[in-house]
Amino acid sequence: MKQASSAEFLTWQRPQTRIGATPGHGDLGLYIHIPYCVAKCPYCDFNSVAVSSWPEEEYVLALERELQTYAGMGLFADCWVNTIYFGGGTPSLFSPVAFERMLSTIDRCWRVAPSVEITLEANPGTVDLLKLKALRSTGINRLSLGVQSFDEENLRALGRIHGPREAIEAIANALRAGFKNVNIDLIYALPGQTLEAWERDLQRALSLKPTHISAYNLTYEEGTPFHSWRKLGRLQPLDEDTELAMFTLTEKLLEGQGYCHYEISNYAQPSFFCRHNLGYWSSEPYVGVGAGAHGYSPWGGSQGWGFRWANERSPKRYLVRVQQNGHARASVEHLSFEQAAGEFIFLALRRAEGLDATRFFARFQKKVEQAFPVIGSLVAQSLLEPTEHGWRLSPRGIFLADSVFAEFL
Over the stretch 86-102, which tens digit does the pLDDT of each residue have? Predict the structure, then answer.
């Protein structure tokens, strides 16, 4: 990816009509990355650093400056902000005052939709009732708690800093604090985990009545201790049959309790889908600020099919870059037709509703089957199935989703 100058960004303009937009989605999502953690989990490959203290004031100033920079660019200046997402790392390490400041900056820089969804990721070990009440008072209206498991042994193996009791208390306190939209992150297919143990985690989660549950299978990402331990034989991945049984059980139990399985790993009560993530999966534009954050625009770019950028990953170097330039872009990639169209397809296929052929044609002025003839082969292999508007992953295709997506990249 090559570096693009600020001048290039300023010359790119978005079209008058938002081609291929999904009805109900806003113009723009904001992602704000806070990379600091108390401890680095051995399975995590996100851009995060374990620290005993963090430069909250300096970092918030940098985020505010970066937000102001993007708000002044022609591509994003007149957008309505529909979603705001504070991710990490562990954003809940920061004080409520920090979030109040950042939200005030956003409100000054952009037009913010009255129904804006504002999500904060939080570690159960970093919040109590008093802090949660203060966070809610800033305007944050969606809380995503990284529970991962309610089993003490599994939490230790995952390197989490909280225990089962803290997780349960955090969820209860979130509801007491006034959060009406609470997500729980869970991880399954852990080494040695049984189907019965996973069912206990699910049943415990259901008993707490969150509005949203994200259930992810454990992956061994390169560069993480878990990946190294697997290569060394210290960790033995769960067999595929048990992993598939866990996925099937998850769908059965959660749908049985009224949760919609609206994306491969995500379940929600009706009207509580994560709107920020829906923006990603619908190829809507988003601005990412913070160390290691990414951004995307379907407009502009040297080839006319949009572009994406990535920020400097090191928090220290990020602060220096923002001070010098007003932003921390370390690289920019200009998308070709093939890249933009392929990503549009595989992101849409993540959703239960699948790919809408009409939206694809409106965006790219080409039929899906012409751009990607492999669609027919994937249907023949029972990995995709036709819908009224296009295609979606079949039950078999969901479990082999990565292989299906690779056909479009």
Answer: 999 999 999 999 999 99
Query: Which among 154, 9, 157 is positioned nearest to 74, based on CA atoms?
Result: 9
What is the enclosing helix (H) or strand (E) of 215?
A: strand 212-217
Q: From the centroid of its chain, how far is CA 191?
A: 25
3 state DSSP class of 101? helix
Range of the domain at 56: 6-281
User: Quick check: pTM over 0.90?
Assistant: yes
DSSP annotation of 303 reads T
Distance CA 6, CA 215 (A): 39
Q: What is the CATH number of the domain that holds 84?
A: 3.20.20.70
Which tens digit of pLDDT belongs to each residue from 337-367? 999 999 999 999 999 999 999 999 999 999 9
**307 and 297 in contact (C-beta within 8 Å)?**
yes
- Whether 260 maps to a domain, the answer reads yes
Q: Which residue has the tokens 């379940």?
A: 267
Q: Rounded distance, CA 401 to CA 247, Å?
A: 13
Residue 394, domain member (yes or no): yes
